[in-house]
Amino acid sequence: MDNRHKIKIAGILNLTPDSFYEESRVMGHDHILEATARLCSEGADMIDIGACSTRPGGVQATSEQEMKRLETGMPAVLEACPALPLSIDTFRPEIASTCVDRWGVDIINDISGGSEEMFNTVAATGAGYILTFNREVYGDILPAMLEFFETKLEQLFRAGAGKVILDPGFGFAKTLEQNYRILANLDCLKQFKLPVMAALSRKSMAYRLLDITPAQALEATVVLDTVALMKGAEWLRVHDVKEAVQTVRLIEELNINKN
Q1: Is pTM, for the whole model, over 0.85?
Q2: What CATH number does domain 8-257 carry, 3.40.1190.20, 3.40.630.10, 3.20.20.20, 3.40.190.10?
């Protein structure tokens, strides 16, 4: 079966001064315009926009700061690439609702693990939703992850949500060993019959293990993304779209010819 174009790539656009990977930070209309245009030209299927860094140990922007950054950035994003789907990386329901209503954002990417208020917002806006497993677990993380998704999906669909993507939450509230256990068993999420997003780009599970910096972790990201795709991921969330496009192309060719 021809699976071309099934795998999608979300290009990361951080409208922040403090995201963990310094090269991903873009501020000001012209810089945002240029960065968005580059992500589009390199082959992104969606732009994932964040205006509040959630890096471990960081200081979260206030709701007012997050919205101010979006008011500067969203017009530039829409100018650079008006036809491409957009997702908003936020844990605040009021921000998510505004982004859908004001700028036509398609998907809410909520790293918090969800709340009743957020689920109601998703249902009310009709936007898609990325549900992230973000819970500290002692013991085997796999059954805890499966139980989390089962419970949260029931709540989401009961609230009236439609399109949902699962994100196992690499790097959030997990040990190094837990991150790799999830990646090695990512195909266990197939039981939910929903798309899975792997957000592994330049994260600490790569650069800490290899004793390098996020800036040096491109090759490691490509390896981790490759494993995720072979384990069934249908979305990659990445800083480096060109390399991700090449990774996807090779994996798709392998899938086409494996029989």
Answers
A1: yes
A2: 3.20.20.20
